[in-house]
Each structure stands twice: as C-alpha cells, then as structure tokens.
Amino acid sequence: MSKVTSNLTISADGYSAGLNQTEKRPFGDDGGDGWGDKLHAWYSETPEEDRAEVDRLTAKAFIMGRNMFGPVRGEWDREWNGWWGGNPPYHVPVFVLTHYPRDPQPMDGGTTFHFVTDGIGSALAQAREAAGDGDVAIHGGATTINQYLAAGLIDELRLHIVPITLGAGTRLFDGVPPLNLEQVDSQATSTVTHLTYRVLS
Amino acid sequence: MSKVTSNLTISADGYSAGLNQTEKRPFGDDGGDGWGDKLHAWYSETPEEDRAEVDRLTAKAFIMGRNMFGPVRGEWDREWNGWWGGNPPYHVPVFVLTHYPRDPQPMDGGTTFHFVTDGIGSALAQAREAAGDGDVAIHGGATTINQYLAAGLIDELRLHIVPITLGAGTRLFDGVPPLNLEQVDSQATSTVTHLTYRVLS
Question: Which of A33, A159, A188 lies nearest to residue B186, judging by beta carbons?
C-alpha cells in the first residue's frame, strides 16, 4: 500500500542542520567543524549497492521545504534550481513548499520541481496524485517534516542517527505533540544507526 | 581501565522524564499515558540474565541528582530514602547531589546514600575514591548527566532509545556544547535500541 515516508539524518541530539543556512553552508553554522559533512559522511561511506536499501529513495513523489530546496528567500529573484545540479537524484516530481509562486521547473533525468503556495495539505494531495500507487516522501528539512508529523500525515519515519551532537539548529520533533511509534527496524554500522519507526498516533 | 559511564533511557526526541515530577509520578506529567512506564517497559521485558549486559549496572559507585533520588525539595524535613525500598539495586555507595546537607544513609544490601553539597566535581572525586578500580556511573537524571557532559567528565554514554516522543520534559544534551562521539555499539530489540557512545570531546 502506498505510504507517506520520511527519511532524515540527524545528530544524536536530534538536529538535522545548524543555524544560519547559506548557499555555501546548506547545513548552516558548523562551528568550523563541517557539520553538514559530518552528518552525511555515513552516506558516502555506504556502498552504492546498499544505498537504495538504506535511504529508500524509492518514492514516486517528494515534498520539501523551501530551505531544503535552496538559500533564496522571498521572491524568486535569482535563478536557483536546487543544490543538485542539472540532473537531481529524484527523477520524479518534487513539490517545493513556498509562499512565492513560480512556474514548474523541469530538470534532466525526470525530476520536475513544482512550487506549492497553498500549504502542506495541498502539496501532499498533489504529490499523492503524482505518485499514483507509489510512496510519497516528505524529504525535509526537519521543519517541514515536523509540520507533517504534527498534522498526523506521516506513516513511516526513517532516521539515520550520527554520533555527534550539534547543540543548536533545526531539530526533528520540535513542536510536534507526543507520538506513539512502533520500531519496525533498527540497524547499525560503526558510524550510524538506522532506525525505522511506524507512526501510530 | 576505570571509566565514568552513564546509562539513560530516553524517548526518540531525547527526553528522560516529563515535566512536574511528584512522588506518585517520578517521571512527571505523562498526559495520562504513563510515560514512565512506557519509557521503561523495555527493561521489564528484558530477560533477567540479559539485564547486566544491557544496563551495565556494574559500576562501583553511582552519582545521581536529587530529583532522581526523590521528590523532596529544600530541607530534608521528611523521611525519604529513595524510590527503591529498603534494599536498593545499587549495592555500592551512591552520591546524591543536593544543596542541603544530610548524614549518610546506609541501606540494606550494601547501598549507602551520601549527600554531596559542594558540587559535581567533588561528587565525582568521592565516587572515584569509593569505586577504586571500578567504574563510576553518572546515573541520572538527564539534568545531572548534562552537567557532567558539559564539564567533559563522562567517558561513555549508553542510551536506550524508546519508540515514543514526549514533546516536553527533561532532555538529554540540553545546554551541552557540541560533542564528538564514537559509536562503539548499537543493538536493538523490537521495542528499544541500545546505543553506546564513547565521548571523544
């Protein structure tokens, strides 16, 4: 059955990014230590043939917040088509939450960025329509995932817990009412623990 | 080599207890859902012969905050010898951090509660002395563990991550500067994930 999933790399204290994102530092302040790199090193260390299992980038539509899409704020007054170059790794429709209308942006490889200005429910409806029988992924960042969790719209949460703490930034579960989860999977390498939770209520 | 360890059960959002602890609710507000019970159900589900491996209650001295010791605040104006009855599960010296002096309280089974009024460094020095070649455990709650983490005094952190979120309460890592950890162990059952981190810096 089609699910709404979410897949996030977090520090041991629950942060997915530091404060003060910029174009050169998409994961924000890093205290000079490269938190973005540290958070995601586990992924580049994962053998390519195992990545599909680990990251489950198998959704047929994605939803992301504007800050995950890029550093541009306010009107779309400069060209920005995401952090991922001409051929993004999605290859399906991606719905970007924003308050500023913009025409759809087709990319190479099947990815099209659609810009949704009428809220998370509308974005999910459009993503479900695009995904057909496939899953929809609430791709991030944590602020967007928290909005969907608070609204009870995520079925499965897959966390990659990295052995650092950040102490400040964008934090998973902030502002989300208490949840009952079911731990459906837990696996580890020496550098990361992958936890999969089903969201019960 | 003798280590300073800490062992804490937390929710997926990092809380070890809710707000507003009372004698009847040592884990605080639970929204009517029994969070204390939910947080610690994994332990009663662990077969007795596996518990030593899981909880590593092998320290030769323990340190705990006053709120973990009990609900009495201010002066020791009523009798209170902990939540654990006449024969507590420690069987070694336990150092309780408090601002209010009190004579040592010997219990059955080898546990003696010592009350330390001159700070976390003093408590650790006394616990090390008592432990000899054995480990010292910073037993909790999270507020006490956070003080020791912030001071760089914990070598190993063992977390039991339970599949619920609390949304408010006493949170591990609050106020602790960013840490580099080494994930030395990660094991799971269907109801909890046990993570062991070495604290590098």
Answer: A188
